[in-house]
Structures are given as C-alpha cells and as structure tokens.
Design the sequence.
C-alpha cells in the first residue's frame, strides 16, 4: 500500500476574483456623549437647520445611543443633512437602502445616494459603487465603471479598492489583463497590510510567472500574511521551510506553520501534520495523533487523508485493524478521483482483504488508474494481465 506524500504548497493559487466589501454606516466618525442634555441640544440645533447636528442625530438614532434605536428617525435627519450637501449623510443613506435598514431594500436608490457622495469625494461611496457595478447590483453590470470607481477610491488610499484592482487586472476578466497594474495595486494594498494582497504578491514571487521568481521575497510576503492569520500563507510558508525555498530548511518551522494553518481548519495542513506523525521521521512517531489529524482532514473531503486512513485501518496503526473501514476510506477517495486510493482498493481485491479475492475486479480498478494517468496503475494492470 502506498500513502500519499506531503501536500505541496499551492504557489500558483490566487484569491477570489473580487473581494466585495460594503463599508458599514459611519457610526464611528465622531464620539458623542449621548446623554439627555446633549441630545436635546443637538435636537434644537437640528431643528434650526444645522446640518452637522442633523447628521449627528442620525448617528445617535442609528446606533441607539442614549435613545431607542430608530432607523426611520436616523433616515429623517440624514435626509435633512443630505439636502444641505452633507457627504457622510448621503453615504449613510446609501447604506440604509443597500442593507434595508429601516427602509425597503433598494439597490438603485443606494447607488443614487452613493453617486452623489462619490462626486464629492467620499471614498467609501466610490469603493461601494465599484462593487455595485462589478456585481450588477442596482445598475447594469459594467466592469469599466467598476474600475473607474475603484481607481478613484484607490487614489485616496482605500486598501480594499487597491486589492480589487490588483485582482481584476491580474485575472483580466472583462477588462484587459495588465500584470504590471496588478502588481502596482497589490503593492499599494500590501503596504497598508492587506492580507490578500500580501498573499498574492508572495504567490507571484514564488511561482515566477509574472515576475522573476524570488523565493526570498515570496517568504517575506507570506510571513506578513501569515502573521495576520492567513491560513494559505501559513501553509505555503510551511512548505517553503520544509523544502528550503528562500529560507534555510527547517522542519520544525515547517511543522509550526502547518500547525497554525491546521488549527484554523485547513485540510491540506491537517493532512501534512497527520503524515508527519504517521511517518515519525521528524517528530516521534505517534499513530494516534496521526489518526486525529487525518480524520480532521478527511471530514473536509481531503482525499489524501482518506487514503491514508484506509492504510491505517488496513494495518491497524493507531486503530483496531478493520479491513471494512479500510475499504470504505479507499472507496470514498477513489470515487472522488484519487487514483492512489484506487490502486490501494485494487490491492485489497488482489489479497482478498475484507472482500473475496477478485483478480478481475482488481484489473478493472488498475485499468481505471492507468486510464487516468497513474503509472503504478498501468504497471499493476499489465502485471496482472500477463499473469492471468
């Protein structure tokens, strides 16, 4: 039986096409001591047409700070402030209609308010309009418009707009691909600590497809993303330390980073930790711990972990020997396309473990592996065919 090896770092993986983030109502623009006297004073000023007081009252009612939360009153005061050109009131009204807070959800109306705020330079409105045009929410989908608004927001330092521009230029979907611009915008976002941008730059330097391959730079970017808790970066750093790419080979560091990713639920990392305990080459062999980590990964559908669990049950390592359990895991992985598990299942038929010995069934399974490009399957298929 053959285990699957350590899963390698996915150096070419990029992030989701667009990170859609709708900024929340600007509750934290100011700090208000919302006691009765302050609210009464603001009320008087608002009634006299003071736009700032109207905006602040809107915040108080939206937050329910010192008063019962009341989105309708918040809307009323923001509308009064907006009529006097208050940019943040315009923006918050857009959020209300986008979210359906105190009003019937209406994306088109949200867009109208945000367009007014964006024209006056509100960066959050510019960013959100980019999202709306990208997704076709309240407007006809228009990627050129999305890019236009994100660029406006990015020029004002909006980290999410910068990252989205990096993504859209890298993917080249619906706009002309431009790797230089992708790198430019990711770098701007990365300088402000955007975790996705940091990871993407690390991936670009690791795979060397767009920039000159530079493992040292890849490690630098991955480390920054990993420190911020990004599991993919932690996993890739583990692989780089394991392989000695851009860093001095350090198995303990590799385990440390894989554990960080595994504890966040990453199946690939859980599989690798399981295999390390299973093999006992780097740490003291511990089949019980191996089983625990394999099971975590397998429960998320990781095929390598399922295959390895099959082997553990076949030989009774860390568990009571159970051929039926072994077959169950091999079948699960094989049916989902893992040809090593398919080969292991075939060997159960060759040896008659948990099933009646059936060379014909084994041949069929090995042929399936061979047809899917698995060399071991081809070799075993020819071997059985020549002997029977």
Sequence:
């Amino acid at each position: 039986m053959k285990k699957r090896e350590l899963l390698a770092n996915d150096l070419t993986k990029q992030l989701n096409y667009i990170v859609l983030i709708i900024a929340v109502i600007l509750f934290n623009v100011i700090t208000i001591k919302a006691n009765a006297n302050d609210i009464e004073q603001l009320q008087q000023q608002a009634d006299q047409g003071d736009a700032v007081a109207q905006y602040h009252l809107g915040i108080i009612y939206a937050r329910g700070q010192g008063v019962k939360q009341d989105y309708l009153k918040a809307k009323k005061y923001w509308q009064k402030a907006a009529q006097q050109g208050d940019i943040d009131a315009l923006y918050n009204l857009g959020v209300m209609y986008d979210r359906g807070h105190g009003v019937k959800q209406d994306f088109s109306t949200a867009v109208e308010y945000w367009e007014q705020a964006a024209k006056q330079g509100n960066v959050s409105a510019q960013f959100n309009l980019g999202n709306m045009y990208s997704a076709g929410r309240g407007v006809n989908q228009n990627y050129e418009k999305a890019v236009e608004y994100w660029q406006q927001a990015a020029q004002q330092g909006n980290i999410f707009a910068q990252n989205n521009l990096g993504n859209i230029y890298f993917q080249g979907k619906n706009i002309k691909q431009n790797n230089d611009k992708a790198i430019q915008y990711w770098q701007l976002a990365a300088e402000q600590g955007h975790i996705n941008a940091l990871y993407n730059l690390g991936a670009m330097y690791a795979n060397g497809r767009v920039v000159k391959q530079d493992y040292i730079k890849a490690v630098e970017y991955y480390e920054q993303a990993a420190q911020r808790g990004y599991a993919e970066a932690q996993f890739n750093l583990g692989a780089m330390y394991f392989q000695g790419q851009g860093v001095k080979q350090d198995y303990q560091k590799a385990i440390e980073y894989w554990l960080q990713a595994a504890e966040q639920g990453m199946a690939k990392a859980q599989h690798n930790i399981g295999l390390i305990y299973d093999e006992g080459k780097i740490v003291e062999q511990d089949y019980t711990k191996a089983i625990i980590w394999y099971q975590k990964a397998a429960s998320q559908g990781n095929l390598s972990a399922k295959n390895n669990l099959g082997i553990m049950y076949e030989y009774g390592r860390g568990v009571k020997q159970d051929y039926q359990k072994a077959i169950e895991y091999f079948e699960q992985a094989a049916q989902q396309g893992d040809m090593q598990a398919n080969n292991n299942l075939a060997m159960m038929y060759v040896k008659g473990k948990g099933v009646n010995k059936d060379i014909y069934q084994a041949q069929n399974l090995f042929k399936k592996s061979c047809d899917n490009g698995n060399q071991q399957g081809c070799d075993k298929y020819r071997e059985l065919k020549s002997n029977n």
In short: The chain is about 65% helix and 0% strand. The CA atoms of residues 222 and 233 lie 5 Å apart. The longest helix spans residues 51-63. The radius of gyration is 29 Å.
